[in-house]
Structures are given as C-alpha cells and as structure tokens.
C-alpha cells in the first residue's frame, strides 16, 4: 500500500483529500503544519507528500527545505497544493525541489491522477 502525507491547515481540504486517497488504497497521514509534518516524517516514509505553502509554525517552503536535507526522504515525491498562484511562488516551489505545483482551487480527481502518475 502506498503512503501519502497530507500537510494542510484547512480542515475541509484535509478531510476531502484523506477520504479520496483512502478510497484509492493509500495509507494516509495528516499534518496541520510543517512542524507536525516533520515530526511524522521522523517515523514514516511516505511515497508522496502533498504540502500547502501558507501554514502556521513552519510554512511549506521551509518544510520542503528540511525534507530535501533528509537522505531517507529522497524517494518522496512532493506536490505543493497552494492558493499562492503567482509565477514567483510556483518557480520557488519547483526550484526547492517540488515535483509538482498545483494551485487552489483544484480538482481532486485530477490531483489523484497526478499522484498516481508520479509514483508509477
């Protein structure tokens, strides 16, 4: 079973993504900010991390920088899912090492397809 970590501080997004990915046979882990995500990553090695940019405590960009420093997480695919849709934000996310940058509002169906493509 593939593992996915969803990192977002918006409960509605977390709930809908959790439900959808569980239905698609993923083991789902949830974090509501970057620090909580990093704590989970101490114990779990997900295949995919869906990461919001704007969060309390540690934002998505800083979280990704920490993920990229951890050799155990090199296989992880990272997708930014963010309302920050300016070209400079997208470029920053990709330059930090994200595999994909999806802007909100988004299609859950399309996001699932993108995740499946990344981990094949």
From TrEMBL:
GO molecular function: DNA binding
Key words of the record: DNA-binding, Phosphoprotein, Transcription, Transcription regulation, Two-component regulatory system
Highest rank taxon of the organism: Bacteria
Keyword Ribosomal protein: no
Domain named Response regulatory: residues: 3-119
Modified residues (4-aspartylphosphate): 52
PROSITE patterns: RESPONSE_REGULATORY
InterPro entries given in the database record: Bact_response_regulator (IPR050595), CheY-like_superfamily (IPR011006), Sig_transdc_resp-reg_receiver (IPR001789)
Name this protein carries in UniProt: Response regulator receiver domain-containing protein
Example of a GO biological process term: phosphorelay signal transduction system
């Amino acid at each position: 079973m593939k593992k996915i970590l969803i990192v977002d501080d918006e409960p509605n997004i977390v709930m809908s993504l959790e439900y959808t990915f569980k239905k698609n046979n993923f083991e789902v882990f949830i974090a509501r900010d970057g620090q909580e995500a990093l704590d989970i990553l101490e114990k779990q090695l997900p295949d995919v991390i869906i990461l919001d940019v704007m969060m309390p405590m540690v934002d998505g960009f800083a979280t990704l920088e920490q993920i990229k420093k951890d050799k155990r997480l090199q296989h992880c695919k990272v997708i930014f899912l963010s309302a920050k849709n300016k070209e400079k934000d997208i470029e920053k996310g990709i330059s930090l090492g994200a595999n994909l940058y999806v802007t909100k509002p988004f299609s859950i169906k399309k996001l699932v397809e993108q995740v499946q493509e990344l981990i094949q």
